[in-house]
Amino acid sequence: MKSEQQQKGVTKTVKKVKVNKKAPVRLWVKAVFTGFRRSKVQQNENQALLKIQHVDDVSSSRFYWGKRVAYIYKAHSLKNNTKFRTIWGRVSRSHGSNGIVIARFNKNLPPRAIGSTLRVFLYPNRA
Asked: How far apart are CA 114 and CA 35, in angstroms?
């Protein structure tokens, strides 16, 4: 009887925790490495051409000038406790009138990266 009386007198308080159902904020935009800047007879491996998602003209590509670019790939051996490696670069300028940009990387991108997805980060912000 005593235990029943104690249970009736005690009230539990339950905290409601808000759950964030939104997707996490992504601070980068997808881009495709279309190839190297080239002419009819030669190509410049130190200048990579990137097609940034939803960028279709020079005026909208100007926003990405100076932004950082990362090519992330997976290697076979561990280095710094991870198999993922990155090659960092920077968008330097536009190329043509349809929104393609030229990026320069610390180490030139390998040819096997042509057609793969890169990340164009939205920093440094010049605004």
From this structure: 6
Give dist(CA 29, CA 59) in Å, integer. Answer: 17
In this structure, the number of other CB atoms found within 10 A of the CB of residue 13 comes to 4
pLDDT along the chain (127 residues), means of 10: 60 74 88 97 96 96 96 96 97 96 97 97 87
The answer to whether 34 and 52 have CB atoms below 8 angstroms apart is no
Q: What is the pTM of this model?
A: 0.79
Residue among 112, 102, 115 nearest 50 (CA): 102
Give the distance from CA 77 to its chain's centroid: 23
What does the DSSP assignment read for 37-106?
EE-SS-EEEEEEEEEETT--SHHHHGGGTT-EEEEEEEEEEEETTEEEEEEEEEEEEEETTTTEEEEEES
How far apart are alpha carbons 52 and 104 in whole angstroms? 15
68-79 and 82-95 strand pairing: antiparallel
